[in-house]
Amino acid sequence: MKIMVTVKRVLDYNVKVRVKADRSDVDLANVKMALNPFCEIAVEEAVRLREAGVATEVIVVSIGPKAVQEQIRTALALGADRGIHIETQSSPESLSVAKLLAKVVADEQPGLVILGKQAIDSDNNQTGQMLAALTGLSQGTFASEVKIEGDEALVTREVDGGLQTLGLKLPAIVTTDLRLNEPRYASLPNIMKAKKKPLEVKTPADLGVELRAHTELLSVEPPAERKGGIKVGSVAELVEKLKNEAKVI
Amino acid sequence: MATLIIAEHDNSILKPATLNTVAAAVAIGGDVALLVAGEGCQAVADQAAQVAGVSKVLLADNAAYGHQLAENVAPLVAELAKTAGFDYVLAPATTTGKNLLPRVAALLDVGQLSDIVAVESADTFKRPIYAGNAIATVKSLDAIKVITVRGTAFDPVAAEGGSASVEAVTAVHDAALSRFIGEEVAKSDRPELTSARVIISGGRGMGNGENFALLEKVADKLGAAVGASRAAVDAGFVPNDMQVGQTGKIVAPELYIAVGISGAIQHLAGMKDSKVIVAINKDEEAPIFQVADYGLVADLFEAVPELDSSL
Ligand SMILES: Cc1cc2nc3c(=O)[nH]c(=O)nc-3n(C[C@H](O)[C@H](O)[C@H](O)COP(=O)(O)OP(=O)(O)OC[C@H]3O[C@@H](n4cnc5c(N)ncnc54)[C@H](O)[C@@H]3O)c2cc1C
Ligand SMILES: Nc1ncnc2c1ncn2[C@@H]1O[C@H](COP(=O)(O)O)[C@@H](O)[C@H]1O
Questions:
Q1: Which residue of A has its CA nearest to B93?
Q2: Geometric angle at alpha carbon A27, from A24 and A28, rounded to 5°
Q3: Which of A87, A159, A160, B12 is most buried, judging by how many CB atoms fall within 10 Å of its CB?
Q4: What is the CATH code for A2-244?
Q5: Residue B155: which of B309, B20, B302, B255 has the closest Cα?
Q6: Tens-place pLDDT, residues A134-165
Q7: Coil, strand, or helix at residue B173?
Q8: E strand map for chain B
Q9: Across the A/B interface, how many CB contacts are shorter than 8 Å?
């Protein structure tokens, strides 16, 4: 079985974003970009399934400007076998991403598609579910464990009340949560090897997909700042303040 | 204008997150209908009918919807949205809502706005991006607007006082793509994190799971829920449903007490709208102190027992 994983290029999670002075968007000039952490977990899971002999090939897909090839190379260095870059001017909205991915699914016929549960820039948490709808496949979102048994994927999901386990008919769409695995680091030899792995570039037109905008970003503003508080010297002072000043206990 | 809201429930109780979502629908305006999709969930429909501001309850009671599998419920919602002419489909931004609604949006060929925190007009909403470090104002260009609602941003409507009609929906969608195998539901007598008035959360500084008993004692005295940072969950101290943050639960209680938590942006994203924040940390440089109203630089193993005995 082939596994398809998707990777998004996002701002590094350690970087604190700033809003542009004209409030048109966040300022991404000269900030460190990285693989979306949830996508890193997706790549790791796919590679482990191949190493365990469950999968035969891991295909990594990213959509966006040429720069996303950097993240595809990272995924290849982490063990994916080949890459597909769908080139667009900017990073499209989730539904558009899902439509493009649905075409790749139709072409490649993977047994399993693993996406991140959420891109840490848009915080959308949509693409996997949308892809499942468009392909008519089963979905296991927020996975903390994935097992392939026969013609099913057994997926344990992190839900608000605890954990839920579903049996998904294969092929299936899975999105990763933080506890699914701990991604490895790419070794230098693997980084070198990744440069020679195949990377195919396509356009939305090649895939026969016409993209349309569903939203318009009107403005972006910084969140309300919290007023700086005080340091208390003792537990007694803390309790006194909470009772008499803040009046919350 | 008409809005369809997916009720959050466990087949017997209507969950409070539904009430915050109704508040968002009321802010949009127009008629509000609640869909109760489940199995043996008549009691939920009865509760839903009482909710202030709701004019109609649609009850889809069928084995196919028992575990609210997205593969089965999404086509039902999409069909209702189209045939009954809803302009908005809303759900709480809970794991259930997040799992279901994008599937509905894609079936309707529309986008989704996730986690809105304000209604600016009939088509324009605010939502946090980048772990809440920026707030985007976004206009939806779609005919049917599919939206998840962040509960902490909307005060709940009253659970009682309404008198909606209940209509049965007989359509059955059973995709037979997935099956429910089991669940491990966390049982606790304490309030739910997302609706608690007080929360005390522990981080990596707690050292192990047993030490969370220190927080539980304080929680019992304050009627508080107990939360955690990702580091505490990853280390196996406590279960995943206790994680507060960008990718866990979003909370905004009256009082949030962070114990042995450094204050990474991903954690702050989940709690910085709390009314009063207390931080107990032995490192006076910890970033959590930048958002704390009251900071106490101390060893938690001394400070927390002392706090417990002084309450
Ligand atoms: C994609 C992604 C998503 C994430 N999502 C979340 C999320 O939803 N929620 C979340 O919380 N994190 C999230 N994180 C992780 C986040 O970046 C931090 O790693 C995490 O919040 C750190 O947890 P912590 O503060 O408990 O641990 P640490 O950062 O290790 O801090 C421990 C603190 O405890 C203090 N301490 C230690 N011992 C004592 C003592 N005896 N007394 C008093 N203080 C003591 C230390 O001084 C320190 O400040 C996410 C990260 C990524 C990459
Ligand atoms: N432009 C993109 N290219 C590749 N994968 C993407 C892209 N956008 C989103 N995804 C995938 O979808 C997941 C969820 O993204 P989102 O729904 O935007 O939060 C991400 O973790 C990625 O795996």
A1: A125
A2: 130
A3: A160
A4: 3.40.50.620
A5: B20
A6: 999 999 999 999 999 999 999 999 999 999 99
A7: coil
A8: 2-6, 31-38, 56-61, 88-92, 112-116, 118-119, 124-129, 134-140, 145-149, 165-168, 178-185, 198-202, 225-228, 255-259, 276-281, 294-297
A9: 256
Residues in contact with B145: Cβ distance below 8 Å, sequence separation at least 6, in sequence order: B87, B88, B89, B110, B113, B123
The C-alpha atoms of residue B14 and residue A4 are separated, in whole angstroms, by 38
Q: Touching check for B74 and chain A: CB below 8 Å?
A: yes
pTM: 0.97
Which of B257, B267, B301 to mutate to test ligand 1, by most ligand atoms within 8 A of the CB atom? B267
Q: The tokens of B286 are what?
A: 């910890």
pLDDT band at residue B186 using 50, 70 and 90 as cut-offs: confident
The preferred substitution site among B240, B261, B302 for testing ligand 1, maximizing ligand atoms within 8 Å of CB, is B261
With contact defined as beta carbons under 8 Å apart, do B181 and A165 qualify? yes
What local confidence, expressed as pLDDT, does residue B204 receive?
98
A171, A112 contact by CB (below 8 A)? yes
Interface predicted TM-score (ipTM) of this complex, two decimals: 0.97
Residues in A touching B262 (Cβ below 8 Å) = none
- Write down all domains in chain B, each with its CATH number in brackets: 2-168 (3.40.50.620), 193-309 (3.40.50.1220)
- Residue B246 CA to residue B248 CA, distance in Å, equals 6
Rounded Cα gap, residues B104 and B39, in angstroms? 20
In chain B, residues with a C-beta closer than 8 Å to the C-beta of A214 are 110-111, 140-142
Residues of B in contact with A222 (CB under 8 A): 133-135
C-alpha B191 to ligand 1 mean position (Å): 23
The residue whose CA has the least distance to atom 15 of ligand 1 is B230
Counting Cα atoms < 13 Å in the Cβ hemisphere of B42 gives: 1
Provide the shortest C-alpha distance from residue A124 to chain B (in Å).
6
Contact map slice: B 28-67 vs A, CB within 8 A = none
Q: Cβ separation of A214 and B110 shorter than 8 Å?
A: yes
Which residues have CB under 8 Å from A108's CB, separation 6+?
A2, A4, A59
Helices (H), chain B: 17-28, 42-50, 70-83, 95-107, 212-222, 230-234, 265-271, 300-309
- Residue B165 is classified by DSSP as E
Phi-psi region of A109 (alpha: psi -120 to 50; beta: other; left: phi over 0): left
Q: What's the pLDDT tens digit per position in A208-222?
A: 999 999 999 999 999
Parallel, antiparallel, or unpaired: how do β-strands B2-6 and B294-297 relate?
unpaired
Residue A170 near chain B (CB below 8 Å): no
Element (H, E) at A219: strand A215-221
- Domain-wise residue ranges, chain A: 2-244
**Token digits of residue B53:** 């501001």
pLDDT value at A227 more than 90? no
What residues of B are in contact with residue A169 (Cβ under 8 Å)? Answer: 176-178
Write out the two tokens for A79.
């063990």
Distance from CA of A190 to the nearest CA of B (A): 28
